[in-house]
Specification:
By secondary structure, the chain is an alpha+beta fold. The protein has one domain: Hypothetical Protein Pfu-838710-001 (Beta Barrel). The chain has 4 helices and 9 strands; from the N terminus they run E-H-E-E-E-E-H-E-E-E-H-E-H. It has an 8-stranded antiparallel beta barrel. Strand 4 and strand 5 form a beta hairpin.
């Protein structure tokens, strides 16, 4: 599967709750609210792994249920839109998997966020409050046919939300944290 995504930087005064309501008025369905702790495994010492490849262990709390996931993300295929191959599997014990990588000598980075997940005709929207970075709206389409199709869907959503001139980025939260782009 190929994931196409960008993030829209939300000003501090934007309310995640109000934006959720607005998206629902536009026909998006609220899927869930969750807390996520993403641990990224630093693969840069691995000579056989292509640059920009990501291995992430996610621990999510959805209601009272703990969900674990291991995700491989291949190198980015485009610059202005984050497009990459993605393969995931469920994990029963995400903390143990992270500990195994640490014991093998891998450096890890952690990103914490509160997330609201919505789904609509154009794709999924994630409203995130990321520790140390601020608030974002992530727009994601799986297996879009083209960059033009993706960009048109994004423009349409931003227009409907009155966010035409909000800043859009293809950087990951980890890239932002490492670059010191925080709030």
């Amino acid at each position: 599967m190929r994931e196409w995504e960008v993030k829209v930087v939300l000003p501090k005064e934007v309310s995640i709750e109000e934006l959720t309501k607005e998206l629902m008025r536009l026909g998006y369905k609220l899927i869930e609210s969750r807390s996520e702790v993403d641990t990224y495994i630093d693969l840069t010492p691995c000579k056989c792994v292509p640059k920009d490849t990501v291995l992430r262990v996610r621990k999510a709390l959805v209601g009272n249920e703990l969900i674990g996931e291991l995700t491989y993300k291949g190198p980015k295929l485009l610059k202005e839109i984050k497009v990459r191959e993605e393969v995931s599997t469920e994990l029963r014990n995400p903390d143990v998997v992270v500990e195994i990588f640490r014991k093998l000598g891998f450096k890890t980075y952690v990103v914490r966020k509160e997330r609201v997940v919505l789904k609509g005709d154009l794709g999924k929207v994630y409203l995130d409050n990321v520790e140390g970075l601020g608030k974002f709206m992530e727009f994601e389409v799986m297996n879009a046919k083209s960059a033009t199709e993706f960009k048109n869907a994004l423009r349409e959503l931003l227009r409907k939300l009155g966010m035409d001139n909000y800043r859009v980025t293809s950087k990951s939260y980890l890239e932002m944290l490492l670059a010191g782009d925080g709030a």
